[in-house]
Amino acid sequence: MATADFTPMFGMGNPNDAFAQYFIGNSYLNPLTNAAECGVGLANVTFEPGCRNNWHIHHADKGGGQILICTDGRGWYQEWGSEPQELTPGTVVVIPAGVKHWHGAARDSWFSHIAFEAPGENCSNEWLEPVDDASYPA
């Protein structure tokens, strides 16, 4: 399916070039709010089929973490040491700070979610190794 054939509910946005090094495949970013202006960062992230981000951890001394609100297509979420969880429109995933995880599209589907960066103290992201093909769900 070509990019033109997929229209996410919250818009495709632009190629996610700033974070491309942390993804296998192409992703697109459409910021929905400006955290500097309103204190809350929301962005629609769209993944082409087979695209997923690297394993990563959202760190915080207090609070923090991430919430994913799935809006379009089909994808996957996995925490380190757990089985992958299928993501479909309406799925909400709460990811506490300190949890190693990844998320992205299924091999055969575009996928979009709204990413909410939970407020906290001393928040940062640690990007880790790619999710290899052998570990990626069929």
UniProtKB/TrEMBL annotation:
InterPro entries: Cupin_2, HNL-like_cupin, RmlC-like_jellyroll, RmlC_Cupin_sf. It holds the Pfam family Cupin_2. Residues 45-106 form the Cupin type-2 domain. CDD domains: cupin_HNL-like. This is Cupin domain-containing protein.
